[in-house]
Amino acid sequence: MGFALAIITIWNQLEAMSYYFTGAKYAPFHGLRCPVIITPTETGIVTAVFNNPTDREDKVFYKAEISGRPFPRQVENQITMPPHQTKSVQLTVDADDVDLLFFILVKMNILPNAFHPSQEAVCGTMVIDALGLTGAQISTFALSLSFLGIAVGLGVWQPTTTNLDRNAKRAMQTLGCVVLLAVVTGIMGWWVPAIALSVTTILLAVISLRFVFA
What domains sit in the chain, N to C, each tagged with a CATH number? Predict the structure, then answer.
């Protein structure tokens, strides 16, 4: 379950990058967050967090583009940032914004000013219909089940481990930690570490299976 949730977060990000790819490169904006999953009847909240570390007031001009058929919609606005403060902006998304079958994709551009250059960020949300649960409940259930499964599994296995099983035990312990790290990095939007950890998860799973069947 944890690995599946990690894959969804990576898939969301890669689809958003491909959807909005223009070839132009801008400085990254690290404050954009999309919900991982929402349902077709749910309204999701996309959050952009702006930080002003300077000693002067900053006026941030931003432009958000949200996918949808037949045309994407755009939101343009500005936010005044007092010195050394953080503010957030929230945008709502729902099933009307779906494109590419079951994705909601968001891009945010920050216009340049005296404090920072042009910045850009993208993120994505998967729309899933799952037995009346909300997107937050699906994500929380998957993450909790992953924690519980790893903890209980290792706890049951630990007393029965023999000397011959030590390598398998180490592989499984490492696998559990890597899966949880992949989920956390994916949810935080750190997609490069999330991809690396997901690949590591697959390799460790293969190694663990070899120990089990050896």
Answer: 12-127 (2.60.40.10), 135-213 (no CATH)
